[in-house]
Amino acid sequence: MNSVPIAVIGAGPAGLSAAIEAAKAGAKVLVIDENLKPGGQLFKQIHKFFGSRVHKAGVRGIDIGRQLLEETKTLGIEVWLDTEVCGIDQDRNIWAIRNKDRSINIHAERIIVASGAIENAVKFSGWTLPGVMGAGAAQTMINTHRVLPGKKVLMVGSGNVGVIVSYQLMQAGAEVVGIIEAAPKLGGYGVHTAKVRRAGVPFYTSHTITRAIGDQRVEAAEITALDAEWKPIPGTEQVLEVDTICLATGLTPLAELVWIAGCKFAYISELGGHVPIHDYQMESSVKGIYIAGDISGVEEASTAMEEGRLAGISAAADLGYYTHEEKERRTSEVWHHLDALRCGQFGQKRKDAKDRILAIGKERIS
């Protein structure tokens, strides 16, 4: 059985940041990812980040990804790609399939799970037709593979993912026929929604999709207005001519591995559903298993990177690579950054939700 001090599952923004912090302390780190390329969501994000300089404001996600990969290479961090982790246990053993044909067992003194999140689907008549896809899938097609998923697009969901991907679809040459939102108010940051609206895209609040129309593929979409109780209003149906329907209807933490390991969970709807409880060091209820990024509650890439840093610092310190004083200093710095990211109207809701999961973690883990 292979053995390593720290194994990081997931080579996205959280996982790479965790690996970098642990490696800086002197720990040998192995990063495992099922994809053929590292970097995760960052390499789909061609827009510039905003916030403060410390949070990479003004830098495009794809460039942040390149910076992380370069730092990973400089620090000599080992990265296994095309490697699917099938299970972990409370003794921190990892079972994986490498290159789709070789089974590997690994023991890690500490494990950091940064497996991200999965897109939510919405069921409606015709939802299995070709042309119905997650907004993240559309973003992968245009920004990673340079393939336009369709020419006329309906976006379902007005959160940040919906409006950002809508704008990127337009940059790629598609027409966004409209963005519908079941809630009475738009969900994304004003800086994103205003940009899309200025480009001429109509928003339909208090609307939902009732069916995708087409024989072999999507040819149109029917949308309907909703009343105050979120029920369709008869007679308000509209048919929009589209060939693609993108679903930006939220994300759910991809937490199966920590379920398998026996970690305790709590249901926090604001964080995407069932999330593993953890403490202020990002350690789960199972000793030596840490979490970071969207698996701990769906937020932004900037937050995922800070949580990754926190998990990396904590895991390395737990193995003696940092002194107590150095760990406290670095942990305090990261929490200052996290609190700054979670301020404001939308961030406060996340902060409140995170405080709840931390309080639950403190109670149940202790």
Can you give keywords for this protein?
FAD/NAD(P)-binding domain, 366 residues, alpha/beta, single chain, globular
Descriptive account of the structure:
The protein is of the alpha/beta class. It has 2 domains: 2-118 and 251-365, FAD/NAD(P)-binding domain (3-Layer(bba) Sandwich); 121-247, 3-Layer(bba) Sandwich (FAD/NAD(P)-binding domain), CATH 3.50.50.60. The chain contains 9 helices and 19 strands. The strands form 5 sheets. Strands 1, 2, 3, 4, 5, 6 and 19 form a 7-stranded mixed beta sheet that branches. A hairpin with a 4-residue loop joins strand 4 and strand 5 (93-98).
Write the layout of secondary structure elements.
Elements: E1 2-9, H1 13-24, E2 29-32, H2 61-74, E3 78-80, E4 83-88, E5 93-98, E6 102-113, E7 117-119, E8 132-134, H3 135-143, E9 152-156, H4 160-171, E10 175-181, H5 190-198, E11 203-205, E12 207-213, E13 220-225, E14 238-240, E15 244-247, E16 251-253, H6 256-260, E17 265-268, E18 273-276, E19 289-291, H7 301-318, H8 324-341, H9 344-365
Parallel strand pairs: 1-2, 1-6, 2-3, 6-19, 8-15, 9-10, 9-15, 10-11
Antiparallel strand pairs: 4-5, 5-6, 7-16, 12-13, 13-14, 17-18
Helix pairs in contact: 1-2, 1-7, 3-4, 4-5, 7-8
GO molecular function: oxidoreductase activity
Domain FAD/NAD(P)-binding: 6-308
Protein name: Thioredoxin reductase
